[in-house]
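Flavoprotein: structure, please.
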Amino acid sequence: MFTSNAFLVPGERTVLVDAGANYDVVAAVREHVETLDAVVLTHTHDDHVANVPALRDAFDAETWGFDADHEHVDHAIADGDRLTVGDHAYEALHTPGHKDDHLVFRSPAAGVAFVGDLVFANGSFGRTDLAEGDSRALVESIERLLDALDEADDVLYTGHGPAITDPLAGVEASLRAARFNA
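Here you go.
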């Protein structure tokens, strides 16, 4: 079964970044915390949101994402909005190309960004052959992420596969590959 990475961030505001699909997310979350304040979505492809109903039922958790008209999004997050994830403030960057509602969440104070399916380890990048995919928009979004990064960024948590532990070099590699394929 296909699923995405999901990241539980405990703290002042315990948040699950992306809900995943096809596994018992409620049991996985309960192994670590008793309550869940919110689910924050990088985008609404099924592999990232299918478990949202189970999380709503179990934790009465509200979901946050770019498109409040989507059935799995309770509250909209606009480009530039700030939200608390765990103990840190994160800025939302609207990064379409893989999907129109794609967001990246970045916290310089935490040294972390959740990049969804925008970029992946080893110079890979999000698909653009699905509905709402746009290779030129994806390149522009990767450029935007690269412009936002600095030496304070330690790790980028991706929607699939391993984290990017050298953010600047990793995003530069993804950008080169995406430009080549645009």
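Notes: The first strand starts at residue 7 and ends at 9.
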